[in-house]
Amino acid sequence: MNFFLKSISYIFHPILMPLVGSIIYFATAPRFIPENIVQTKILSLIVITILIPIVTFFFLKTTGVITSIHLEDVKQRKIPLLIQSLLLLLIIKMIIDVYNYPELYYFFLGALIAALSAIFMVIFNVKISLHMLGLGAITMFTIALSVHFGINLTLLIAALMVINGLVATSRLHMSAHTNLELIIGFFMGIIAQVSLINFWL
Question: DSSP alpha helices (H): ranges in 64-153?
């Protein structure tokens, strides 16, 4: 059980959430998007949201700026979150345009708002759960997609709710967060998406 709960924190790491949101979008959007375009977008997102942050993580760890991939120390979060914000801005400007993929564009814009909000919290030495931040955003985005496209995503939404519970349990088990930090992170992710929902729903 201990191994399982620890594994959950890695399997559903915040770094993967932008890619997960994109996959959900491309898999559910009832509009024709050429397969080669989807593959190109996904590959670009893998490079920008996963590979670059991983390389950056090893550089920051080597230089002693951070000590863990989970960023337990709130003071170590500022630089990684700033880098993440710049990468999200790059995606909005270069990869996902508002004209062809409005839903996904505003999802990433919401993710940028959430990342900047997390930086704001760091300034005041407030620690929130980045895991729950990402999952809250994904869950809200999926619910909005279901309503927007008029498709039944009940099973997916239910699965995301279960995953939210598992991740929260995992973070508590690892003593990485308090209940309040988990709740704040979850609702910050949701609010960041809801704040833009009127632009595309």
Answer: 78-90, 102-123, 130-149
Q: Are 170 and 6 in contact (CB under 8 A)?
A: yes
Rounded to whole angstroms, the Cα distance separating 12 from 90 reads 23
Please give the Cα distance from 182 to 129 (Å, whole number). Answer: 5
Residues 6+ apart with CB under 8 A from 145: 24, 25, 28, 29, 103, 151, 153
Residue-wise pLDDT tens digits, 24-81: 999 999 988 899 999 999 999 999 999 999 999 888 888 888 877 767 677 888 889 9
Enter the DSSP assignment of 47. Answer: I
Query: Which residue, 197, 193, 22, is CA-closest to 117?
Result: 193
* pTM for the model: 0.93
* CA nearest neighbour of 134 among 9, 7, 3, 4: 9
